[in-house]
Amino acid sequence: MAKSYLPVSTQDVDSSLPRASTTHMATTTLKVGGMTCGACTSAVESGFQGVDGAGNVSVSLVMERAVVQHDPTKLSADRIQEIIEDRGFDAEVLSTDLPQSPSGAADHDSDAASEGLVTTTVSVGGMTCGACTSAIEGAFKDVAGVKNFNISLLSERAVIDHDPGMLSPEQIAEMIEDTGFDAKLLETKQALAQSQPQGSGKRGNVLTTTVAIEGMTCGACTSAVESGFRDLDGMLQFNISLLAERAVVTHDPRKLSPERIAEIIEERGFDAKLLSSVDSVQASASSTAQHLKIYGLVDAKSAEELESTLKAMPGVLAVSVNFSTSRAAITHKSSVTGLRAIVEAVEAAGYNALVADSDDNNAQLESLSKTKEIQEWRRAFKISACFAIPVFLISMFIPMFLPFMNFGKCQLMHGLWLGDILCLILTIPVQFGIGKRFYKSAYKSLKHGSPTMDVLVVLGTSAAFFFSVAAMLVSFLTPPHTKPATVFDTSTMLITFITLGRYLENRAKGQTSKALSRLMSLAPSMATIYADPIAALKAAEEWGQDEKAIRDESAMNGNAAEEKVIPTELLEVGDIVILKPGDKIPADGTVTRGESYVDESMVTGEAMPILKKNGHGLMAGTVNGAGRVDFIVTRAGRDTQLSQIVRLVQEAQTTRAPIQRLADLVAGYFVPVIVTLGLATFVAWMVLSHALPNPPKVFMDHASGGRLMVCVKLCISVIVFACPCALGLSTPTAVMVGTGVGAEQGILVKGGAALEMATKVTHVVLDKTGTLTVGKMSVSGADIRGGWTSSKPKERLWWTLIGLAEMSSEHPIARAVVMAAKDNLGLGEDGALDGSAGDFEATIGKGISANVEAAISPDQKRYRVLIGNADFLRSQGVDVPASSEEAAASFNDTESNEGLGSTGVTTIHTAVDTIFTGTISLSDTLKPTARATIRALRRLGVSASIVTGDQKAPALAVARAVGIPASNVYASATPSTKQEIIEELQRPLAQGGQGHVVAMVGDGINDSPALATAAVGISLASGTDIAMEAASVVLMTPNDLLSIPASLHLSQTIFRRIKLNLLWACGYNLVGLPFAMGFFLPWGLSLHPMAAGAAMACSSVSVVASSLALRWWRRPRWMSLENLDPAAAALEAADGKSLDSAKKSGGSGFASVVAWVKSFWAERKREREEAGYAPVPLRDMGEV
User: Fold this and answer.
1) Full-prediction pTM beyond 0.90?
2) Strands 629-635 and 905-912: what pairing?
3) With DSSP H G I counted as helix, E B as strand and the rest as coil, what are the percentages for the chain, rounded to 5?
4) Which residues are catalytically annotated?
5) Any stretches that span the bilayer, and where are they (predicted)?
6) 3-state DSSP assignment of residue 819
7) Which residues partner with 237 through β-bridges?
């Protein structure tokens, strides 16, 4: 039997969502250069320990960023940068998001929100291994104001949530620098408070009202209308178009109502008709912080004048123009003055402006590709090699293999040989020129008690150099002036091998971030828009109705078709963008005119182009095909889906997995342990070489330099061979490559913790409507009662009332009822129901109620309409006949029912003025991959359940169709009971639960509590923003449910690679250290310091190369619709909707390599043809 949950109490889903804290921290983001491992990030973090005003510090080695939360009144962004630089790393402040000061007009909630935590991102330079990250992280432990700290070795970034009142971004940078790393603030942004729950019924503070105006003939008319709104209380923004005969007014409805707007226009002598009045995207009290790069400032006075000019603009709250950095920080109300208007004002003042986001984006792309680091280490390697090779030839190669050319044995003075003098001269530039960076970093890390790998490099090379110098002095000053045993070649070759290793390592690191870099580069730099978006929108609406008239009107007034090209970052919501064949789409939007196929593969992973028509949505970063399309921008800049994807991937690659924290912790202790082992090796062999009657032959061999020289070499080998870099790079490189590949396949994993948890999933709970089913329900029948069918007008009134009541709901059932109402009333899909509805209330999982007035009602009566399940109507005092419920139950209980796609029938009941008026039956369609997904999960050893707010009968029908046992079906579940179900499944067996690690899959607001409660929340990208925010994995291809097992398989593959990397890093040291320590000297086996240096360089490179193998990941060949559900695959093929299995599945081993090579060359070809984009063969995907 299915479990049915029908609690009496009703609870809104958003009441269970967490609320944002109300503190007053700023967030500073810095770029940190020079980090190489976890010890570096730990060194940066430790620099903030005990620092007053410091909050959470997050340092990312992969992203080369540090994000610091701090109190700006106690810890500035400059101080944060100093702290990081003091730690031995390069730091640059990228951005600081300060808490916004609450305005007098803001309400109490706004005041509270303004005191929220801030998130600071810092670029950290100089990290090489886990010891570095541990050193930085340790600096922020127990620091007042730090709430959360994350650091990534590969990206070289730290992200810190902190209280800006206690720890400023500048102080965060200083703390990281104090640990011996370079720190640069990248970004500090206000932690956003959660928005008001949808459907709460509370009206927003800002409305955007559109009014149609008739009678305007020239510019004087528009001026007359506009003058009526000047200095009007409550009016925020006014736009009017003569050609479109429309005005768009942004206003505060508490001070200026839409009706009053129409009256003001009519008072000016024109006819006005309200077209729409909708909530504005941003509240009037909200503000946006923007940073501009200003070019052309000549002195501080010009900066002050520009600052005054911008401050005078309406809606601009604060302006700060810094002449020294040529940057302007502007806080403004975007609902009043947009960014484009501010940039135009700067240009009108005689300067050039560039949005700093684009500049920082280019800098981040360069950082991710490691361009600067690769150039620096290549140069260092070439210079050191130029000196090291002659030293090697003089000191080792010529004496051993070309003794007749050994000019180095010429004695210039007593105890001084030509070869030693030349080697000393050639070694100094390498030791103190190229090696200078190692000395600086080592000093700063030791200064703060957080030694990094650079300490080992300095100890090893310095020991070789200074021992050789000391040997020369002893030979020169004391008889018998024999030739000293020098090892200058060890010093120079060690530094050469280390610089070569760093060069190769950074090249490999640049490849790990290739997927993220490609995502960040998808959006075009420029966009073409209409100069008058209102006129263009009106023309698009009328297009096709009177096409000739539109063309004639456009010919008479050029403004209708006037185009202009602007930078993409200046696009604003409401702009009409023109897409020509082959153009990249610059923002999210909705098609207003034209149709074309769009290639979305680079964002969603979907192989085939999708046909886009009027009303269809477009995503930024995708590519237009052969048609011309106009679309209206709905989300631009940081709000686009592409930007959210990039942000999710960045966060995933910045947030460390628990296993990585352990590795970084070990790396933090690695250096002191290795130094201790090196000293112990030296002391032990010095004692043994003198105490043993027959020590190993190497100690007695004069060519080896004697006992002291052999012991020194062994000590150097131990110190140089053992490197924490491989340990620190094991996890972040695998996470970066894996999450990047996942993003390209349409699987977004939010961080290492989610990745690690996904590998432990034993049970998957799936929502039914919109997840297993298409979610586009249709009305299959209506049983109208109570006299509403006595006449045709009466029946039409019933459909009108039902349709108007459901108009305010976004639920799939509501949309289906509205469409059925329009169909029965003879209206088209775009037709409007004549009437209005108010006092709308939705009880999630149960039903809706509304007061409805229908224009066709003969007595203009207001009706109270109730629609929902039987229990909901009964709770409202409605008597629901038992026969209405029994009819649906008998149909759904029929095992052989396959007439409606095996999804059963959902029934809802209706009542008007508390009188039962009938039952509506609806059916849905299973997604083609639903059955195959359950089979794939079962093959992975994962069981499945269905949880739904729908009735028991259709839930059981879907379970039978996909192969889920009836005992695993939870029907009639409200958001709170869904949450309880997840908690019950996850409760340990000892406490009476089932002991599962649960993954919840959903797409709606009502799934959000369950998504947040589950160990792993998986959201479909077609769902709501709240659901995607609550989830830890987001799937960009909602119709391909095989992405669910694919995401689990990807997580398992990444985690296996992490464990393999860690095993290799640990095994490398465990096997190699005994050789370096001389355990096998009795058998004549040892590790020369030069060989130890080469081995050290290979260790980190090998780990990164291992992680790069994840780029070949594809779905296993068995995880395809053809193999799991041949019948469904055949049906898909027959419908022309076959999934691209060549892209979706690839298997493993050699087949994966071949697939990767093919994709590599295809990518190269696409880049070569980018100037003239040729779309792949077109296919209408329909609803897929």
Assistant:
1) no
2) unpaired
3) 45, 20, 30
4) 767
5) 380-402, 414-434, 455-478, 484-504, 666-687, 707-729, 1062-1085, 1091-1113
6) helix
7) 250
